Amino acid sequence: MATVSMTVNGQAVSGEVEGRTLLVQFLRENLNMTGTHVGCDTSQCGACVVHINGDSMKSCTMLALEAEGAQVTTIEGLAQGGEMHPMQQAFQDNHGLQCGFCTPGMVMSAIDLVAKNPNPDETTIREQLEGNICRCTGYHNIVKAVQQAAKTMGG
Amino acid sequence: MAENGIGARVLRKEDNRFLTGKGNYTDDINRPGQTYACLVRSPHAHATINSIDISAAKAAPGVVAVFVGQDLVDDGIGGLVCGMSVAGKGGEVNKAPPRNVLTIDKARFVGDPVAVVIAETLAQAKDGAELVNVDYTELACVVATDGADKAGAPQLHEEVPNNLALDWEFGDSAAVDAAFATAHKVAEIELINNRMVTNPMEPRSAIGEYNSGTDETTLYLTSQNPHVHRLVMSAFMAIAPEHKFRVVAPDVGGGFGSKIFTYNEEAVCAWAAKKINRPVKWTSDRSEAFLCDAHGRDHVTKAEMALDADGKFLAMRVTSYSNMGAYLQLFSVSISTLFHAFLLAGQYTTPAIYIDMKAVMTNTAPVDAARGAGRPEATYLLERLVDVSAGVMDLDPAEIRRRNFIKADQMPYVTPVVHTYDSGDYDASLAKALANSDYDGFAARKAEAEGRGMRRGIGLSAYIEACGVAPSAAVGSLGAGVGLWESAQVRFNPTGSVTVFTGTHSHGQGHETSFAQLITERLGVPIENVEVVHGDTDKGQFGMGTYGSRSLPVGGVAIVNACDKIIAKGKKIAAHTLEAAEDDIEFADGNFTVAGTDKTMNIAEVAFTAYVPHNYPEGVEPGLDEIAFFDPLNFSFPAGAHVCEVEIDPDTGTVEIVRYTAVDDFGTLVNPMIVEGQVHGGLAHGIGQALLEGCVYGDDGQLVTGSFMDYCMPRADNLPSFDVDYSPTVPEHNPLGVKGCGEAGAIAAPPAVINAIVNALGVKHLDMPATPEVVWRAAQAAG
Amino acid sequence: MYDFNFQSASSIDDAAAKLSAASDGTVMAGGQTLIPVLKQRLANPSDVISLAGAGLSGITNNGDSVTIGATTTHAEVAGSSDVPAALRAVAEGIGDAQVRNRGTIGGSMANNDPAADYPAAALGLGATITTNQRDIAADDFFTGLFDTALNDGEIIKSVTFPNATKAAYAKFPSPASRFALVGVFVAQAADGVRVAVTGATDCAHRGPMLESALSANWSADALDGITIPTDHINADIHGSAEYRAHLVIVMAKRAVAAAG
Fold first, then answer.
1. pLDDT tens for each residue of B83-93
2. Please, which pLDDT band fits residue C190 given cuts at 50, 70 and 90?
3. Which long-range contacts (CB under 8 A, 24 or more apart) does B565-569 make?
4. CB B152 within 8 A of CB B78
5. Which chain A residue has the Cα nearest residue C102?
6. pLDDT tens across B697-737, in order?
7. Which of A144, B488, B651, C224 supports an S-S bond with A94, CB 3.0-4.6 Å?
């Protein structure tokens, strides 16, 4: 076992982990932050996406020890002062979620997408979300949500 | 319409928790003293189990217990059951071979569980599972849907000669033969309905917990129907008596059918928790889900249509195999027979229909209900056959459909395959779909695309489904082991808020919102004062769960029926308080009013009076809390017309859906926003089947498409935005006028997509999934 | 996953030292291939030595070539104005956005997946792979299925891509995995035409038939009539050998057209 320390949603945290402990396991099991999900074992579904130092990454394909010293943001860290992040609000406004399981990863990916493409067209949104699989929505309303959020985040 | 009532686009009440990471899925739950289970699974498709050596696993670090199938049998635990008894040829009911929770004698598919290792951590359980030494003798296996009943095929079960679980026929074969004998033309098609892996994004999970003080077992699990899970696991498996058994299905991350069924792993968790007196948790890997979740579809079919000189359908004949996999799950044989054959009339007046269906067992994962369940298979073969018929008759696909539609004024319409359609206007929905898709402008778009070297095609699908499952007597007569009513409890709290308990389960469908809209509409209670509770057998009284687009048509009606009881009782209380005759009390917009006066009492005041009955009518019970059960009078029949337009790159075979138009008849819409979302998701599922998804086993029974690396799920860039519209008719037998909408897209889309591809290439047929290579080859062959 | 000892290397020499001290160690850059392999228990290393802190990230362009540090991520390459457009496009097409934020060029080269994109670019541009021990020409680097010229204990430090007059990459992704079913990189440089193909065989390779045709006539039409023999072409449920062989020509033509 080794000790790992990082900042999660602005809070300094540390814990004892094995070499093989994945970041997503550390978040879910050590920190009891279960908003980040695991939907596959081949790094494709994106339910586990978090931000590491501002970039979206798959926390199921990263060791907890690799996040030593990192700034980690999870779905739990987006809302501020009881107000949802514009992307969260856009997902609700546009019915961009159904069962909610892929949603945390989808929202985290979408925020990074808009940060790097402030005015994305539909094609860009669809291509940039290829790392997130949703079985419920058919993506139609997710695309609309990202378009709305891009406007509110930009303005 | 009440504000936020029926018809309002109310934003979902459940979204806040899902969007902020506060959802509570089974794997998010951890219980004190919890252990972790890892199943030891057969690596062989078919093998005799000679011995299982668990000694090394038991001695491994952190391992708490190791169990094999005999341990459960010794404890009197029953096997998994098939819930249907369908009578086949000669009245012979389907075979239902026994299935132990952990197989003892033989492994019959790759992934068949043979032992379980329970340890302090998941990693230790997995480490321990590697140390279980199973001595197998490999046997020859069979995977082919149309090969399992052939002479010499390896036999899976002693109880199932020739691997034939059910040899079934339905319809008037003499009338069909006669019609074919005199037909002007005959259209025929051979097609495969590809096996799909259902793949809700949340993998299955279960936590068993036992309280020795109360002798109560609690099972948290990913279920679409927790009461049914409790019933089956009590009545047939003896996991725990029903009154000492609580099943909790908290937030569930999608189901699409695959979470209806009772599975081995959850039975193991519930049983082992008592055995070791500690909670036992199991969560599926995606790889395990591919191997062991019930799959869907998998038919090999020949279909023929007899036509007269005007292109009218005279008769249809279907000869088909359906693959049940290695064991029969809960619905199993009913999906490819009853839920399939009874929709073969489609939207048409075809007077004579005959189907011969052989349900066979193979060394593959069990196959059962998956989004649409039998109806996508029926719609695909029918709507492909209709297009082939159009070709044979040299008629436009829209025209041949119009010539054969059941007309709106023929409703109710009795088809030759059991169902009585209650409502529908198929001409209207097709006309709207053609208009919305600019069908008439297609030729110009095709010419423009050809100028760019692309092939453009357009395809129709006119589908119908039977939803709102189901009238209990009807399904009972067909072999179901249960009734399919639904129940609801509407409880006013003394402060005027309402708690609704439903026996249905929401795993994405938004019941917490649309059911609250029913309360707001019916009782005038502000939607923020309504809470919908589901998914816990200790809270809701009973229920049959969510599948077959039944929650609103059946469960929703139970809720409004309970509301009507609330109103009836409220009138007595209001009459007493307002010193008026009960018959003079009118109820509207949440207020009980003495007719013709301004004397009024809000329903919240009535509720308070009911719980603080200081001045109260004689003979009326205190409290305002009503239960209703609703058993539907008929199925509901959502229907519609979809138009798909594709562009194909002939050099690579890549298919792009450039336009998709849906016009659906779902009757009354309670929350149009949610309905649209259901349509979108269904379309993605159906387009996935048509273009991307196909579950493939090798001849050795190994699953080739065992992960998202090889099984292609629809992603955002595979799909277009959809044009969704409605053409409603209202079923009179359903008190809410609703029909159900969750499966429509998955049913309608596959033939629309394939019809469009076939149209683009000028070929007769190609099988799903229409992968780039399949399409490229067809394009090459067509020249 | 089997457990292992996780170590962070402070430099490439430190990584080499830690690797040699470990009984059965492996180095890891972004981990986007290694971690999935470990999760499936297909590998059981004693030590995993992270290169993230070894100072191997960065992009420098000296006017004649661009040198990309081994732990530079695909996203960094895709977004760098110091990287030629064709190479940026290769990086932009790898995996998905999240994988690109973590996966590295060094990891991709060392893994040498038969369907990886970077090996095609390295061969197509005649890159040089610099390790802690030596320089290796791309033509000598990719030796077989998941196999490279790297010795035990040898670690990639950077990859240097010389400029080309014209270059482009065309990829036909496998529908499910999004790896290349077939990818073709074409380049026209001072020393001639180079064509590299990935996804089609056990390892990225040069396409001599295509090179000679394009050397004679740099146009998509020059590839008409060429048939790729299917003897050594991969086949799976996503594409038969015949289809992949066909796609090699189609992608090569599209790459030439894109290169201008």
1. 999 999 999 99
2. confident
3. B565/B490, B565/B626, B565/B627, B565/B628, B566/B490, B566/B492, B566/B523, B566/B603, B566/B624, B566/B626, B567/B522, B567/B523, B569/B610, B569/B620, B569/B624, B569/B626
4. no
5. A57
6. 999 999 999 999 999 999 999 999 999 999 999 998 999 99
7. A144
Class of domain C166-259: alpha beta
Q: Domain B31-139+201-254+259-292, what architecture?
A: Alpha-Beta Complex (3.90)
Nearest residue on chain A to C28, alpha-carbon basis: A66
Q: Which domains does chain A have, with CATH numbers?
A: 2-77 (3.10.20.30), 86-154 (1.10.150.120)
Contact B629, B456 (CB under 8 A): no
pLDDT digits (tens, 9 = 90+) for A20-46: 999 999 999 999 999 999 999 999 999
Which of C39, C238, C253 is best to mutate for the B interface (most B CBs within 10 A)?
C238
How distant is the Cα of A68 from the closest Cα of chain B, in angstroms?
22
A36 CB within 8 Å of a chain B CB: yes
Give me the total of CB pairs closer than 8 Å, taking one residue from chain B and one from chain C.
41
Instruction: Please answer yes or no on whether B696 and C237 come within 8 Å at the CB atom.
Output: yes
Q: In CATH terms, is domain B485-630 a member of 3.30.365.10?
A: yes
- Contacts of residue C2 in chain A, CB cutoff 8 Å? 20
Residue pLDDT, tens place only, B310-366: 999 999 999 999 999 999 999 999 999 999 999 999 999 999 999 999 999 999 999
Out of A49, A63, A132, name the one closest to residue C6 (CB): A63
Is the pLDDT at A155 greater than 60? The verdict is: no
Q: How far apart are the first and last CA of chain A?
A: 47
**CATH number for domain C59-162, candidates 2.60.40.3080, 3.90.79.10, 3.30.465.10, 3.40.50.300:** 3.30.465.10
The DSSP secondary-structure symbol of B496 reads S
Helices (H), B578-622: 603-611
Domain B295-469+634-782, CATH number (from 3.90.1170.20, 3.30.413.10, 1.10.357.10, 3.30.365.10): 3.30.365.10
